[in-house]
Amino acid sequence: MNPFLTPPAATEYAPFYANYVRLAGSDPLQALRTQPLVLRQLLAGLSDEQVRFRYAPGKWSIKEKLVHMIDTERIFAYRALRIARGDATPLPGYEQDDYVPLSEADGRPLASILAEYDAVRAATCCLFESFGAAAAERSGTASGQPVSVRALVYMLAGHEAHHLQLLQERYLPNMA
User: Fold this and answer.
1) Domains of the chain
2) What domain of life (predicted)?
3) What is the pLDDT of residues 57-69, one digit of tens each?
4) Is 140 helix (H, G, I), strand (E, B) or coil?
5) Which residues contact 17 (CB under 8 A, 6 or more apart)?
6) Phi/psi class of residue 7: alpha, beta or left (left: φ > 0; alpha: ψ in -120 to 50)?
7) pLDDT at residue number 7
8) Which pTM does this prediction carry?
9) Residue 176: is its pLDDT beyond 70?
10) Which of 19, 24, 41, 169 could form a disulfide with 28 if both were Cys (CB 3.0 to 4.6 A apart)?
């Protein structure tokens, strides 16, 4: 049985993540399984020049956005693992704007980024599918805020949904 069909209570995550929880839909595990297909459809036929596109000065390229999604997924999954296993150590935050330039994403082939994305997503799905109801309800602290394992899967699926939406609304329509 899927222990993630009940959305987390607002007390299970920081208010900042409310939109991500909402965007995850009613079954975040299913969203995690289908998002790679949506991503591939959005990127189909784009050239290397196009995946380096930024819709405004100071914004990330599509390649940087993809690596940011991978980094965030790894961090959220790591947090979920630690909390699910009963580790009560407060987990630090991370600064996404420091990570992205150091990723050197624009210098990588898109195929390499997508292969990494697929590997991380497969591992993430296996991890969350391994959790039972008790693990899903465990809570800990990340970035100085309370968070449950259940909230993390919703936050993760919603985070990706948010970035897929940005690709559709701000990137793809503005490409030459």
Assistant:
1) 10-174 (1.20.120.450)
2) Bacteria
3) 999 999 999 999 9
4) strand
5) 151, 155, 158
6) beta
7) 96
8) 0.97
9) no
10) 24
Q: Is the pLDDT of residue 27 over 80?
A: yes
Strand partners, 139: 148
Helices (H), 24-148: 28-43, 62-84, 96-103, 110-130, 133-137
pLDDT score of 116 more than 90:
yes
Q: Is 52 left (phi over 0), alpha (psi -120 to 50) or beta?
A: alpha
Contact between 139 and 146 (Cβ < 8 Å): yes
C-beta separation of 26 from 151 below 8 A: no
Q: Each residue of 128-139: pLDDT tens digit?
A: 999 999 999 999
d(Cα 129, Cα 166) in Å, to the nearest integer?
28
**Run of H or E including 166:** helix 149-166
